[in-house]
């Protein structure tokens, strides 16, 4: 026991010695420095933590603020969107009122310019066009024809034939200026109205140029059809913001010798049997329909149609189109916000030349064509006269053309007619006939167009 106590005592002594030596070491300046450094680091970290905590709570407050602002902005956007939709509705109503005030069948008279060989021997336009008084600017409405006649006592007297239309465009008017005047009508088709624009006039007076453009088509001389289609695509894209989405379908048919041909089908002359009554309308809509979701598809459609179009020679114009061509664009709109739907229709019609039989010098097959053209155009005149007289019976069924245009002339649609005229003195009688026909059309009140919306 004593021995064990002594051993333990010895052990305690040894460890006390070790503790003393360790304490001594700890108190040495090296350890002290390390300790102080650690203490300072610790303090710095504590400060950093405190400042980070401060920044974090500041950020939290900012996030709350931003969230509130975001909600405020979202409410503002919703309010503005609904305002835009309301304004769009007001715009549509106002636009329609303006169109109605302008009258439903409007007539624009367009005089084509003199072409290359018509201005020979250094002649100026005013040297050739001596039988016509035209407006100087593009905003005129009057045109006067003048003809020198011999009176009963042998004296020369100048007889004048004044005409007034919604617009009269002299030969210098560009395609884009003319389109500006009809772009409102094209807009109406997107708004859900049936719209019909047709070109009437003698062969070579510029109908195809006006509706489609010349053969060497470029941006500047594009006709009303490609311009209308471009505008429709551009406006439909803008209306997307207001919730409107559109589906577009196109058809192109031709009425030749009183039968209807599909200009988009594969068969060049796919003939349709003459049906009477309601069947006939169904037949029209059985023709090829192309979904038009890109402007490129429209260009391809117009190209195909023009390739298929019947072209034959007559004495009046070597590339004379002897048929009526009818381009139809159906525009189905749906507003994904208001769930409103609309169904507009745009008919763009290039009528066959209106020249009289005697002037065309036609015989044989050409004579038959001219008779068919004259029949349908005179049916058009009869329909318009019956509408102007407010007759109980309107003879739409007398020709394919008037049957096709039934909805466009019968008061349900907005209609515009171009009367294209030649500037040549030798076309005086044809021009007079065309202007008289156009005056009859212009005086025709067909009632108020109805928008197709659900
Ligand atoms: N405003 C114009 N500017 C320049 N050239 C024109 C204009 N209008 C017509 N032309 C030219 O006059 C010629 C006859 O025009 P266009 O073929 O359009 O007549 P049209 O009335 O359609 O004849 P058709 O009844 O035979 O179809 C064409 O060469 C055309 O390019």
TrEMBL record:
A matching Pfam family: Kinesin
GO biological process terms, semicolon-separated: microtubule-based movement; mitotic spindle assembly
Span of domain Kinesin motor: 104-444
Keyword Hydrolase: yes
Superkingdom: Eukaryota
The keyword tRNA processing is annotated on this UniProt entry: no
Record keywords: ATP-binding, Coiled coil, Cytoplasm, Cytoskeleton, Hydrolase, Microtubule, Motor protein, Nucleotide-binding
Gene3D superfamilies: Kinesin motor domain
Location of this chain's protein in the cell: Cytoplasm, Cytoskeleton
Gene Ontology MF term list: ATP binding; hydrolase activity; microtubule binding; microtubule motor activity
Coiled coil: 63-104
Protein residues bound to ATP: 201-208
Gene Ontology CC terms: microtubule
UniProt record similarity statement: Belongs to the TRAFAC class myosin-kinesin ATPase superfamily. Kinesin family.
Entry protein name: P-loop containing nucleoside triphosphate hydrolase protein
Species per Swiss-Prot/TrEMBL record: Thamnocephalis sphaerospora
């Amino acid at each position: 026991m004593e021995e064990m106590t002594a051993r333990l005592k010895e052990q305690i002594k040894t460890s006390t010695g070790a503790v003393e030596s360790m304490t001594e070491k700890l108190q040495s300046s090296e350890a002290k420095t390390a300790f102080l450094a650690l203490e300072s680091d610790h303090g710095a970290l504590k400060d950093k933590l405190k400042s980070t905590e401060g920044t974090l709570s500041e950020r939290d407050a900012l996030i709350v603020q931003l969230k509130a602002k975001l909600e405020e902005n979202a409410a503002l956007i919703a309010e503005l969107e609904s305002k835009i939709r309301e304004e769009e509705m007001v715009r549509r109503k106002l636009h329609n009122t303006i169109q109605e005030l302008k009258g439903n069948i409007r007539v624009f008279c367009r005089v084509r310019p003199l072409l290359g060989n018509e201005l020979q021997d250094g002649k100026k336009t005013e040297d050739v066009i001596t039988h016509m008084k035209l407006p100087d600017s593009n905003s005129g409405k009057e045109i006067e024809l003048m003809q020198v006649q011999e009176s009963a006592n042998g004296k020369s007297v100048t007889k004048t034939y004044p005409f007034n239309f919604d617009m009269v465009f002299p030969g210098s008017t560009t395609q884009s200026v003319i389109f500006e005047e009809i772009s409102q009508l094209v807009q109406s088709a997107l708004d859900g109205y049936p719209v019909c624009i047709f070109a009437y006039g003698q062969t070579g007076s510029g109908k195809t140029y006006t509706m489609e453009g010349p053969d060497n088509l470029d941006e500047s001389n594009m006709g009303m059809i490609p311009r209308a289609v471009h505008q429709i695509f551009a406006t439909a894209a803008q209306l997307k913001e207001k919730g409107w989405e559109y589906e577009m379908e196109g058809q192109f048919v031709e009425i030749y010798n009183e039968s209807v041909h599909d200009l988009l089908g594969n068969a060049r002359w796919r003939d349709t049997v003459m049906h009477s009554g309601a069947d006939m309308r169904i037949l029209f809509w059985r023709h090829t329909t192309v979904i038009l979701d890109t402007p490129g598809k429209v260009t391809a459609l117009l190209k195909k149609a023009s390739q298929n179009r019947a072209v034959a020679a007559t004495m009046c114009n070597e590339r004379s189109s002897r048929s009526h061509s009818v381009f139809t664009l159906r525009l189905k709109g749906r507003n994904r916000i208001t769930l409103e739907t609309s169904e507009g229709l745009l008919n763009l019609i290039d009528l066959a030349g209106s020249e009289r039989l005697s002037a065309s010098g036609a015989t044989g097959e050409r004579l038959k064509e001219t008779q068919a053209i004259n029949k349908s155009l005179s049916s058009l005149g009869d329909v318009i006269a019956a509408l102007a007289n407010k007759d109980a019976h309107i003879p739409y069924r007398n020709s394919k053309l008037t049957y096709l245009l039934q909805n466009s002339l019968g008061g349900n649609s907005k209609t515009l007619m171009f009367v294209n005229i030649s500037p040549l003195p030798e076309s005086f009688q044809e021009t007079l006939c065309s202007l008289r026909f156009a005056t009859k059309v212009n005086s025709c009140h067909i009632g108020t167009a109805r928008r197709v919306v659900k």
